[in-house]
Amino acid sequence: MNWLPALYPALLSTGLAGRALVLRHRLLTLAPLPTPRPGGNPAVVPSALSAAASASAAVATPPDLGAARDPARPGGLTTARALGGPGDLSRPPSFGRPDGVIRLGGLDDSDALGDRDALGERDGFSERDGFGERDGFGDRGGSDVQNGPDGIGETDGPGGVGGAGGAESLSGLGGDVGYEFVVGERVMLSGPVRRAVVGHARENGLGILDLVPADLPAERALDLARTLNPPEYRTDPLAVGRGAGFAIVAAGELLDRAGHGRGALDPGAFGAATARLRQCTTAADLVVVPSTSPRGPLGRGRRAWLAGLGVPVGWTIAAAVLGYLSVLAALALDPLWGLIAVATYCAVPYLVFGGTALTPHDLHSAVLFRLVREPYGWWRTLTDPPCAWERERVDRRDAARAYYRAEIGRGVERFLGPRRESCPWCGSESLVVHVRAGDMLQGKPGRFTLERCRDCGHVFQNPRLDDEGLAFYYRDCYDGLGGETMERLFAAQGGILRARARFAAEHVGTPRAWLDVGTGQGHFCRVAASVFRGTAFDGLDTGEGVEEAVRRGWLRRAHRVPFRDLPDGLTGEYDVISMNHYLEHAADPLAELDAAVKALPAGGHLLIEQPDPEWRLGRLLGRFWLPWLQPQHLHVPTLDNLVRALSARGMRVRAVQRREAHQRYDATAAVFVALNTFGPDPFRPWAPGPPTLLARLRRALAQAALPPLLVAAALADRLVLPLIPGPGNAYRVLARKDEG
């Protein structure tokens, strides 16, 4: 049995290597822009930059941002028509706009860019950090860009970017091609690179193109590999933007529609722009460019960048710490095999980047000093001075804290109405307590009770929150301070939403117009549009997300009113009305069904999806079963009750899915709810007081426990829970209105 101590290090080494190869596979799908050979001939494609003059008449406009691009197109440049004259793609540029957005026009190849870099090109970097020397890890820190009066690279000519004036447009083609560059701090791009990436975006019909510098630092490049799945990024309609934090080229119309600000883009603001702009187009890609990434000390801007993308920084650091401690534990168990685990851990950057288009400028130091760099990087990430974007978020939290302190000080018990003595569905007085829980998502103060009718099985909140209470508990959940978290959750539900749309597609044909009630930010409509091509999708919700969905292009129109207040002029306007996970939020679900029947034309369809209160695990998990979702879910009707209510209103049920509608998240969501209950965010605005040492410790323990518990829960959701007999955790009903 002497081999047992060596088993864990061996398995750990295998896991580390396997994970690194998975990340490498992701990066292999990132292709570089072609670079010209001496004399101007391209190295990758036959029609490159030197052939642009012959195609100068083909000035393209921005792509149709609502049309999906061909997912089979590779990430690299396949042709380069109308990109401009020959030039060296590795030359960095200067920028003439201090707002982080560079409009094409006035480009000139003769940018004067400061000191030469190691490749003999002028790049504007002093290559020294704030102390005038190299940092302790072999890479240069604190890049000191030689800025001119405009603050972004040098002094530009009066009319453009690095040129002598604004009269000359891109490659002399005449007119504006409709693309703009959004850049991070201290970023420099050469004129030829700018023309090449615009040509790539135009040729492939892209709304946005994220630029990844080939020498991206190892820390940022590993973050890119962990957070990005390029095939999904290119094809998933719900994909949230990911990138390198370097530069983006985007169609100007898209920037205007998104309401993109023209202020300075620090790491947090650039991360937020990266995440959001991807949601405004179905045509997006990434490409590796031969440009120099800004130098800086380890961890600079990382916390803000990840937060801007919507990546949980605490959980990211906790997962890294857990992996690091696992390697040290392997070394303690068996020194020989532990050294192999340590060597594998240190070699991860080599395994990830080998053979890819990325060669981090600090790759060798990232490997040789990884055992030291990693803890140092965590410390620098957590202690990095906050940027303006982060300070603005803190100000928003402080303002919210004042509001919640005043509201909670008045007592949250006032939000509950009197207790009902009878079932609101069937009128029976045979009621029993089903579940008691607190605020399952946000941890706001208060306790809530779900009761079940023994006669009809209906589950409802009793006593129920009044309208003021609902506003209090919904605040900062789906939008506001909680908007980023909910966006991540909804963006991960593409498979569920697609299955729902396909269920309806089997029976409703091609509707002319569709109204999604309780649409949130329109995620279902975004996915359903790929199933029902030609259907116009409108959304209804009382939150601000429905208006954001219109700005993204996910909805044709937004109705920000309660459903029962829908104008009479829209009666008969929609062939399909959907209520997906909506009725459980309604104070009077039967009245909502009445409104739906009234709004539908004869032959129209009503699609409903609901949590199934008869799922066995709902009782077993109790207050940790997410579909109970207190205090937001007010009514959870059974399938039989809903079918009878529809039939009583002249609706003919055409199809039902029960087990097929099951969604595999029960154990995973229970882990999140339980850990959030045990260790809630100590800085949440509705916390009972300032963060205490105990509160911070509980939060840290919860974050450390999350990765292993999440893996176990995901396996249970996939392999174990589907074996439980009976209905699933949700059901779908499609009904048709036969009478006018």
Automatic annotation (TrEMBL):
Residues 150-168 have a biased composition (Gly residues). This is Methyltransferase domain-containing protein. GO terms for biological process: methylation. The chain crosses the membrane at residues 304-330, 336-358. Residues 62-168 are annotated as: Disordered. GO terms for molecular function: methyltransferase activity. InterPro entries: SAM-dependent_MTases_sf (IPR029063). The keyword Acetylation does not apply. Residues 113-142 have a biased composition (Basic and acidic residues). The keyword Nuclease does not apply. Pfam families: Methyltransf_23 (PF13489). Keywords: Membrane, Methyltransferase, Transferase, Transmembrane, Transmembrane helix.
